[in-house]
Amino acid sequence: MSSVSNPVVHGIFDPATWTITYVVYEKEGSACAIIDSVLDYDPKSGRTSTASADKVIAFVREKNLQVSWILETHAHADHLTAAPYLKAQLGGQTAIGDHITTVQHVFKGIFNLEPSFKEDGTQFNHLLKENEAFAIGSLTARTLFVPGHTPACVAYQIGDAVFVGDTLFMPDVGSARCDFPGGDAKTLYASTRKLLSLPPETRLFMCHDYPPNDRPIRFETTVAEQRAHNIHLHDGIDEAEFIRMRTTRDATLAMPVLILPSVQINIRAGEMPPKEDNGVSYLKIPVNAL
Predict the structure, then answer these.
(1) CA distance 218 to 197
(2) What is the pTM of this model?
């Protein structure tokens, strides 16, 4: 595996969920990876559509890219993944961090899923271990285990670019919440220090942006910028101070609009629940459980 230090990164913003899907590649005509895709979902009707994913497909085809990987940083609670649709259209292997099995176990219980639902991650083509290296054509990628927001979060380091998932946000937004099942503020603090100990010039790419004060959407920053200006995690904020802030703030936050449909789908690698005897898939809404 040869190493290319500066991959091309193309972000596609989904305004409905404030999510950025990334296409990462060496050059036009090369292999690529797709990170954190979005399947459109209308919570009022329960209907899915593919407008966001189709933008990804159009870009991949425009640049004549070959999809090697369709990657998830974690089982998202704010949008559904489009991984199966993208795989059917473009090929590639689906992958997520190997601690997804912990999340599957927790949510199988919360949703009382069918007995046949497996908690072993086999819904994905590949489970990535901490520090595991994998190839995207001539690019070398590495998995970084960064739990705290969920117990299974990973980041992907590809050359000088790191895709941080929900661990960090832009400096004026701060950090991810830690009050979902299995989340932990102390663990998140350690994960953020791991990311912020990378070289100062390292490019960091956010999974979401929630811009304050009507600023334009931004999703790229650097380790140096985060260490200097992140409102929750700049240099000088210690673990105890962060835990106090995060715990207090999380107690005021509402659940994400799409957490119940998203998690049920995302722990299945984007597949719908098994169809019932009328040919329809159903999602569950646990009452007073979260």
Answers:
(1) 22
(2) 0.96
